[in-house]
Amino acid sequence: MSLLTTIFGRLIKAVLTLLAIAVLNFFLIHAAPGDPAAVIAGEAGAADPLFIAQLRERFGLDQPLYVQLWSYVKNVLTLDLGYSFRQGMPVYDLIADRLPATLLLTLSSFVISLSLGIAFGVAAAARVGKASDSILTTIALLFYATPLYWAALMAVLVFSVQLGWLPGFGYETVGSGYSGLQRTWDILQHLILPALTLGLFFMAVYMRMTRASMLEVSQMDFVKTARAKGLSGAVIRRRHILRNALLPVVTLAGLQAGQLIGGAVLTETVFAWPGIGRLMFESLEARDYNTILGVFLVSAAMVILFNILTDIVYRLVDPRIGAKS
Amino acid sequence: MSDPILSIDALTIDLPAGADRPHAVEDVSFDLSKGEILCVVGESGSGKSMTANALMGLLPDGVTVGRGRAVFDGTDVLPLSEVRKQALRGARIGMIFQEPMTALNPLMRIGDQIAEVFAAHKLHSKSERRARALALVKEVGLPDPEKIIRAYPFQLSGGQRQRAMIAMALALEPEILIADEPTTALDVTTQAQILRLILALREKHGMAVMFITHDFGVVAEIADRVIVMRHGRIVEAGLAQQVLETPQHSYTRALLDAIPTGRVPDLQVITAAPALEIRNLNKIYRTGGGVFRPAREVRAVNDVTLTIAKGEVLGLVGESGSGKSTLGRAVVRLVTPDSGQVLVGGVDLAALDAKALRQQRHRVQMVFQDPYASLNPRHRILRSLSDGPIAKGVPKRQAHTRARELLDIVGLGADAATRFPHEFSGGQRQRIGIARALAMDPELIIADEAVSALDVSIQAQVLALLADLRRKMGLSILFITHDLRVAAQVCDRIAVMQYGRLVEVGPVREVFHAPQQPYTRELLAAVPGAGWAVAPEAVSA
């Protein structure tokens, strides 16, 4: 099958999957006790049943569940994510507003963990059994085992509070009025701690996987062939071993990439990062149905999108895939 | 003969502490002359590959050269630095390996892998490298060179990959070509082609070839001189004809005797009722297919009708892809045929549903090719042998007693029952595999390449065991093999398969001495050393 037909088929499946997810999410949300009307009324200090009923009528929550589901699905199909009564904004705008911050954080942590993880993995494999290999492997194990929130808090304590090198929270310095390059530099400084913290776990995973995979591939027959050709060790490692060893790493990277939107809730909370994760958390507490559903849907779309991208990357890296069938 | 191009003197290769012996190779000396083909023969563990690896500087970790010199063009190559060894490898000493399936990088195009040899030695421009790769692909006789250099290894057959390997090894016209069992994994006809190619290239380029093999047939085909190795030492060396015809050392004689010679047994008249009747069996594999294009069909078994009498051994021979294994698997119902009947003792196995099949499975048992992979490594032998009978309903105690008896019968002794598979050698495991098949009291045994993975001397022992068991127990066996000489030795009748069809069936003597079909003749002619192996028989007959 050609690449195009594969992608086409996958996209059709993706749309169907997404619809199913939307419906499931809808029921999940409504299964939770309480609704936005009750929360808003509670916060306003007016538990007046009439007021709550009015709110419900305004939000359409007085309708039977199937009617609400139908109107929700209709909206989703027209890419209308609804209106957040809580925030007083269309959900689409709300998400579009928060998305860049989250993507900046998760993408940079993705790139950092992937590149450093592979680099350290290659380095450890090249020195297998030596002291530097043990040190790298042990550090990776430590990162692997450290809970994210603890690492985040410690990073803030050490680098921000104690040493004062980097800002400990926020997306940029509030009220600084920076623009252009100055602003970029400011955001970059704010980005370093959360991006590193978020990337530690996956960096450790990539490193361990790359190392194991490199060692396995280096035992294979074609590596001996490469040596018999008179190639130098460095060329063999780069051209023959690494390329083959990266195949399982690609699979895992695809999994991580799927979490680019939903996977940063903890980090965003600790570092007060104004991203989707925090939006989701706040909306959950407020029973802001439309926003939660919107975030869920966008996250699901992201997972599916990156699954398709992973498959495409796989086919580009490994000529055997796709040609077999 | 001209001066030696390579002179190995008192080479000793040390194994790491804790190995089963201190030296992989001990005190080995030989010369290799320009344009000469030297065959190094020995069974697994004889140290024949280690010698070659030492020359190339490709010894495994922990294995080191202890003593000795290997003088190539006036220089001892063994103590050279890694960088200088790299300069030799590929450029002046080329090497090809046994497994064409795994010896090429699966993610790199064939052309790039050939061109890489020039890059490794910093020769030629990029376009020149490509042009030369194309020329090499042509020279080793690969079809459609333009397409081949853009192909990936998985798109080539085993024989084609081995040709590509040879193209790489020849790229810089090395003075020495080391070939480490290059044809062992190939079909007979492909093997014959590769051997012819190596001979032709030797003629053309005048390179010396060090050809490592376990197969005396190959030796008879191409060798000028022979070295026989055992336990890391050279036991015999000499001109090929001398060693083959008048072997001096008892080990060489034993090896030569162990080779199935193609000596054809007299026809035994078997009139008993059939143990297996295959009627019009078909199995089609469909791959690919979908909305956008039709499925590809491979007729693995195409309208095969075949009978095995009680007490008969029928050899099923053919090359890979001929459908012989699929036929064997269809008889045990590991694959379900599309149509046709498989009658064993009057029961049509092909028609049974899952439940009925489980009750009838014991009628046919299989002995597999790979003695290492076919036993559960976590189960003691006793359990491997008695699980089947117990599932069939035999009381546990009785199954265990029978298992011990069988281990005794196959020559391992009842004590073997409490041990694990890893404690046994390949030949011993195959005996266990046979015992396991016998434990089910089958009416028919399918031996699928059951001795192909074994060294010749071990092979001879296992074949002798099978012949013995057959005499004592009146076994009916479907013996699937690619090795015609093995088939000739143990079988009563031979069935030849090609492209899923039965090409020829007949008594061994007729098929071997008066083959009716061109394909059978082709197959027989391709057997390495055919003339040498069959000749003595022809004289005595």
Account of the 3D structure:
The complex is a heterodimer of chains A (325) and B (541). By secondary structure, chain A is mainly alpha-helical. Chain A folds into two domains: 3-91, no CATH class; 97-317, Orthogonal Bundle (MetI-like fold), CATH 1.10.3720.10. Chain A has 13 helices and two strands; from the N terminus they run ααααββααααααααα. Chain A has a two-stranded antiparallel ribbon with strand order 1-2. Chain A is globular. Chain B is α/β, with parallel strands linked by helices and 541 residues long. Among the domains of chain B are: 102-171, no CATH class; 274-370 and 444-540, Rossmann fold. In chain B, strands 6-7-8-3-9-10 form a six-stranded mixed β-sheet, sandwiched between helices. The A-B interface holds A 1, 5, 220-222, 224-233, 235, 239-240, 243-244, 317-320, 323-325 and B 56, 58, 82-83, 86-91, 94-95, 97, 99, 102-108, 116-117, 120-121, 152, 154-155, 165, 168-169, 287-288, 290, 292-293.
Which tags fit this structure?
heterodimer, A: 325 residues, mainly alpha, MetI-like fold, 2 domains, two-stranded antiparallel sheet, globular, B: 541 residues, alpha/beta, Rossmann fold, 6-stranded mixed β-sheet, 20 strands, 38% helix, disordered C terminus
Percentage beta strand of chain A: under 5%
Helix content of chain A: over 70%
Instruction: Give the helices and strands of chain A as they follow along the chain.
Output: HHHHEEHHHHHHHHH
Q: Tell me the greatest interface.
A: A-B, 27 and 36 residues
CATH superfamily of the domain at 274-370 and 444-540 in chain B: P-loop containing nucleotide triphosphate hydrolases
The stretches of 5 or more residues of chain A where confidence is low (pLDDT under 50) are: none
- Quote the CATH topology of the domain at 274-370 and 444-540 in chain B: Rossmann fold
Characterize the largest beta sheet of chain B: strand count, sense, and whether it forms a barrel.
6 strands, mixed
Structural class of chain A, by secondary structure, is mainly alpha
CATH fourth-tier homologous superfamily of the largest domain in chain A = MetI-like
Average pLDDT for all residues of chain A = 85
How many independent structural domains of chain A?
A: 2
Q: What is the first-to-last residue Cα distance of chain A?
A: 7 Å
Q: Looking at CATH, which topology of the largest domain in chain A would you report?
A: MetI-like fold
Strand order of the largest sheet of chain A: 1-2
